[in-house]
Design brief:
Blueprint lengths: L2 H25 L2 H8 L3 H7 L3 H16 L1 H7 L5 H18 L3 H11 L1 H10 L4 H13 L8 H17 L1 H8 L3 H23 L4
């Protein structure tokens, strides 16, 4: 593919990601994507023959942006507390740089969860590793008994919610953009402190 072709493809994908994020898959129209990209519909279909193929390409790009670094931390030999700290930091930092990703993935979870689960496995996620680690740390008296699914749900929810509910949080608290950015930086510390305090076994 030439540099010009590659550039056109990226323009299309950027425009499509914006439309899919705002409208969801069902509400998005190829004509609107072409308009946002500043090209004609025929050229859009030349690069991506259908809306589904275009969405699939964007979804894979999103997953490659969002999950590899986080999955690498979860699958690493770090302690559970270290994983919570690193995932909190990495997840929030990644979403700060790509603020539309949370809503994009949220749309897809509600529309096609099977696609998300399948792609999780493709990037090396093995839930059993976390389950085994939690069991061992419970048996070692490091943490209180907790199911892995509850811990992961708590961790992801605490990281993602401020991005999905950003307009509401900013409006309720009267935050401007600079204050919201500081709020997100504080979350990097508050989330691991909250979770670790909740599961750490008291001596």
């Amino acid at each position: 593919m030439t540099g010009i072709d590659s550039n056109t493809e990226q323009i299309i994908m950027k425009a499509a990601r914006r439309v899919f994020t705002n409208k969801g898959f069902d509400g998005a129209r190829m004509q609107e994507i072409a308009d946002v990209a500043g090209i004609n519909k025929a050229l859009l279909h030349y690069y991506f023959r259908s809306k589904d193929k275009l969405f699939e390409a964007i979804f894979k790009e999103v997953l490659n942006t969002v999950f590899p670094k986080i999955i690498a931390v979860l699958m690493s030999p770090l302690t559970l507390f270290e994983k919570i700290e690193k995932v909190s930091f990495n997840y929030i930092e990644m979403l700060k740089q790509n603020p539309d990703l949370a809503i994009f993935v949220f749309h897809e979870i509600s529309r096609n969860p099977e696609r998300l689960v399948g792609n999780f496995k493709n990037v090396g996620a093995d839930f059993k590793i976390i389950q085994t680690q939690i069991t061992k740390e419970v048996e070692a008296g490091i943490i209180v008994p907790i199911k892995a699914e509850h811990l992961i749900a708590n961790l992801i929810s605490l990281c993602v919610f401020p991005f999905i509910a950003r307009p509401v949080l900013m409006g309720m608290a009267g935050m401007d953009q600079a204050e919201y950015d500081r709020f997100l930086e504080e979350r990097k510390q508050i989330i691991p402190h909250t979770l670790i305090t909740a599961i750490k076994k008291q001596k």
